[in-house]
Each structure stands twice: as structure tokens, then as C-alpha cells.
Amino acid sequence: MLQSQLFTKTKREAPKDEEAINAQLLIRAGFIDKTMAGVYSFLPLGWRVFKKIENIIRKEMEELGGQEILMPSLHPKANWEQTGRWGTYDSLFRFTSFYSKIDYALGPTHEEMISPLMGKFIFSYKDLPKYVFQIQNKFRDEKRAKSGLLRGREFFMKDLYSFHRDENDLDEYYEKAKKSYEKIFKTVGLDKLTYLTFASGGSFSKYSHEFQTLTPVGEDMIFVCDKCKIAVNKEIIGEQNDCPQCGNKNLKEEKAIEVGNIFKLKTKYSTPFNLKYKDEKGELQDVIMGCYGIGLNRLMGTIVEIYHDEKGIIWPESVAPFKAHLIEIGNEKLEIRKKAEKLYNILQKAGVEVIYDDREDATAGEKFKDADLMGIPYRLVISEKTNDKIEVKKRNEEKAKLVSEKEMLKILQ
Fold first, then answer.
1. Residue 332 pLDDT > 80, yes or no?
2. Where are the beta strands (DSSP E) in 140-216?
3. Does residue 78 form part of some domain?
């Protein structure tokens, strides 16, 4: 991509109405734009990051056997009345159609949609197990939308739902899902700070599980067990003062951001919709369900909260919008422009994702500041000083080094 063609611009000052670092930096760097509290547009650079995250998640869900679908955002009131949640779900956006006078909701979650949908396809034990997932925008009428991408009123979620004939089958799949989540957080660079966290299972089971990433700006309080590398959510620590896995009583209190959760729903949402199957004896049995969620906006915001410095964002390579940021200094000189353009073409042919700062009206200082703010992993500089070499600097390192074209490609590939 040519930076001169990018319609977005960087901003020198942080927005005054944003306290969260993730929102400040993403807006300043031109990745997102704020429409109103809790609602953001993804701009070209931000959308590239979002798609990287989405594809990492999709790959793991497909490896778990998940089949991708897309369900409606518009939900009929009747479905929510069937589960009893129409009047009890606090953050449900409800409205009445001007023409039909029928009540609807904007989907904050999709149990009320997936259960009746799967009831059209599951009839026999031979139809089980089944796993379906979607990546879709959700709507929640948060009392206070805050923390940038960490808590929004409109956001994207990955929902995976699993359907089983018995709890043993659910338990086996649930353990596989845990491992898939761990792989996702490792791929995006959060594994060292992310803990499997025991939380309340509500009316579903004894425990549900969250994946919590440690950070001083976290909204949640968790208690970490250093012995077995799991944690306990504050909501259940009163009931259980020790580690549920190893019994360790010396748990460390930490702030964290929830980046994913998994639940054993059991029959909570199959029973209201009469989601049953016939077993080998021809007898009807309830379908057992599990659900597994990851918020994509929240995950992107968490990555920025963890990976930044005073100059800007520092993207992990796996989710960066581009791998390299090519900068030409002294572009009024034709030979430098030609060298930069040649290198840009070489990088593209080599399959390296690159953004080329070819702007003629930006100073060297402005280009370097923008590169630091945008946080692309490798900065490549062509100038009079570099001669026939290329200056390569990693965003998370202080020192740059001069290398040949061949060495540069080796570094990037």
C-alpha cells in the first residue's frame, strides 16, 4: 500500500473524551474512528488488524470441527420470551417496528437463535455431535460504554456452539476448546499474560471458564495461582479461597481483561426450544450444549493495552496490518525515489506485506513519528546515508542496522 493513497491521517493529540490507551492510540494512528460512546468505525489499517485476528480465530474454530454460519442480528421477541430473558437481560436493545408493531431485539448473544435453528437439523443420535460458529456484530445497551474497544455497545464476537448427546461428550469437547483458546492467545502474543480463570457457572454447572489477560488497566479482579498457572475470578473467591486445581492458598490478586469465555450450557437453551434427539432405542433425549465466545474488538484493544510505549503501538507480527514500513528520506532526489520504488516492488514480489511512505509533503521527522505511532514491526529506510544498503529497525528495539537487500529479505521472511 502507498501511504500517500491512504485516506486516513494520523493525529498528534489524543482525543479528549478517551481515557483508555487502546482508544487513544488506535484513533491517533488512524486505525479506528469514534462515532459515539461505545461505537467505532474500523478504518483501512484497523480493518487489516481485525481481519488478521478474525482469521487466526477462524482457523482454530475450523480445526475444532466448527462449521461457519451467519445468523441474524435482528431477533424476534418470541424467542427471547421462550427463554425468559426478554424482561431480564439488562443490556438488551429492544424496539418496536414502526410498520408491523412487532417487538424485536438486536442480538447481544445468539442462544435464542441457534437452538431453534439447530432443531431443524438435529433429529437422531446420528446427527450428533455438531459444532457451528459465527463471527458477527453484537449489540449491548451498556450502562456505561468505556475503555475504548474493551467495552462497546456494538462489537464483533466469535460464537461457537457445540451440540452433544451426553455430558461426557461435552466434557471432552470442552477440554479441546480450552486448548484451542490457548493457541489463539499464543498466536496473538498474549499467552504469557493470559490465565484460564475459574468463574461462576451460574445455573449451568459448578464452573465456567474465562481467559483473563493481566494488565493494570483491567476491569476485572482475579486471583492467580503461580503453581499451576490458573486463576479464580473475584466473584467466586469468597466461596473458594484456594486454587480449585491444586489447593494452593497463596493466590495473588491481579487486575485483568477478559478476552474469552467458555460455558457448559447443558440443557439451559435446548429445553425451551424442545431441542431433542432420538437415541438408539428411539427415545427422546435433550441435546446437551456448550458455548465458547471471544470478543474481537476486545481482543484487539487488549493487544494495544499490552503492546505500546510512549511513541505508539507495537503490533505483534501475527496481527500487524503490514510487516514492513518502507520510508524514503530525501524523496526530492530522483535516485532515492527510484531505489525506494524498486525495493517496494521487490518486497511485494517476495510476498512481504508492506506500506510504503511515499508522501512528498511529509518531513523525515513526521514520517518516523507516524511509523512509531502506527507500530508496524519493521521499519525500512532508504536515504542518502544508506547508500546501497537499507536501514532496518524493529519497532520494539532501539538500534537500527544497515543491511543488504538479501539480508533484509532474510530478516523479513
1. no
2. 154-164, 194-200, 207-214
3. yes
